[in-house]
Amino acid sequence: MKIGELSARTGVSIRSLRYYEQQKLLTSVRQENGYREYTPLAEEQVRTIQFYLALGITTEQIASFLNCVLKNKEAFCEEVLPIYKQKLKEIDDQIHLLNNIKSNLEDRIRSIQEG
Amino acid sequence: MKIGELSARTGVSIRSLRYYEQQKLLTSVRQENGYREYTPLAEEQVRTIQFYLALGITTEQIASFLNCVLKNKEAFCEEVLPIYKQKLKEIDDQIHLLNNIKSNLEDRIRSIQEG
DNA sequence: CTTGACCCTGACATTAATGTCAGGGTTTAT
DNA sequence: ATAAACCCTGACATTAATGTCAGGGTCAAG
């Protein structure tokens, strides 16, 4: 299929599909006219990429394990676990930071409304 | 005092102090040689700016109420409360989003470690 | 009078994925 | 054969505060 169809099937913009290819997350073969041609498997692959992006995993990290998880179950890809754990730590840190700010804001709102 | 001293006293970089001035958070008078001259009050003012920035308030929002809070108590500045509440909502949303991602990551880590 | 420590402005870089535009080919249907 | 709907590459923009550099004045101490 061509890029427009892949975009329509996945809901991912053409711009992003080209970007994923540049980041080596997605491959295509070129037709004689230069158009990208995708296999039907590309659709599932794009959904997988979107799934990891939604977890906050960067394209660079995804590239490091995508080939493996597309062939095996996630659990067989040793690259995945450390990345998940690192991401989890980043998110935990971020949540703590936001909770601190939240408490601070709530205090100030309360003190304004009382004063 | 000159900008280097204000920077040393507050721990805020010279670059940032100039930026605050450009964003109309901070004022200075120019000496004949073009150097910025700050009053002693600037030190407290810079600390106040840093405090709001640490709450995630943007310079543009700070500019909208800084003059008021420097003269009055925060509670007298009606501009402050809606900004606090808006920021609180943004932070709440962000925390929820991060908690969702966190649960998702934890699930996947667990399933890898079990599998 | 020279050196080092200040100060100035203006500009570019930073992050990461995506939007958007320009300029230009290709295909398909009429 | 022409118009509409595709496709291509390359480039700039987006956010917000800060870092950093270039090129150039100013001041103070020796």
Automatic annotation (TrEMBL), chains A, B:
Transmembrane segments: none
InterPro entries: DNA-bd_dom_put_sf (IPR009061), MerR-type_HTH_dom (IPR000551), MerR_fam (IPR047057)
Keyword Secreted on entry: no
Record's keyword annotation contains Transcription regulation: yes
HTH merR-type domain sequence ranges: 1-68
Pfam families linked to this entry: MerR
Keywords: DNA-binding, Transcription, Transcription regulation
Record-linked SMART domains: HTH_MERR (SM00422)
PANTHER family: HEAVY METAL-DEPENDENT TRANSCRIPTIONAL REGULATOR HI_0293-RELATED (PTHR30204:SF94), REDOX-CYCLING DRUG-SENSING TRANSCRIPTIONAL ACTIVATOR SOXR (PTHR30204)
Protein name: MerR family transcriptional regulator
Species of the source: Cohnella silvisoli
